[in-house]
Amino acid sequence: MRSTEKLLWSVALPGFGQLLNGKYIKGIAFILLEVLINVQAHLNKTIILSFHGKIEESIQHVNYGWLMFYPCLYFFAIWDAYKDDGGGQHPYSYLPFVFSAYFMTIGVIYSSELTLFQVIGGPIWLPFLFVVPGVLIGITIQKIARR
């Protein structure tokens, strides 16, 4: 159950799970990378615009070059905190995290082009929607690989 706590703190902010695990250098490095990417991608303003339904404005505001780094940092930090605390001991247990990062990155790539009803889409909502197939495909491949 403790591994889940570290995983959830890393969901809140990459690096928090590492700090809770006592991996201070790694945790600070993840936090600094998150802040760097967040600032350079204009992520907080983009999130606010997306939550207000201003998808087109959020698309214009975000720096996609920097935003492309976020999914991999995010899911790697979550996996790392979970693994360091003893979670994910089964073979291929990393696959849902890997496929989530991959699909979220694809969501970022297409987020300026795919919008559903001009509300769902953009650089925040579409990548998060793409996490769902990433998790499902990762779990499926994980189960197949364990056989």
From TrEMBL:
Query: Which keywords describe this protein according to UniProt?
Result: Membrane, Transmembrane, Transmembrane helix
Report the domain of life of the source organism: Bacteria
Chain segments annotated as transmembrane: 63-82, 94-112, 124-141
Q: What is this protein called?
A: Uncharacterized protein
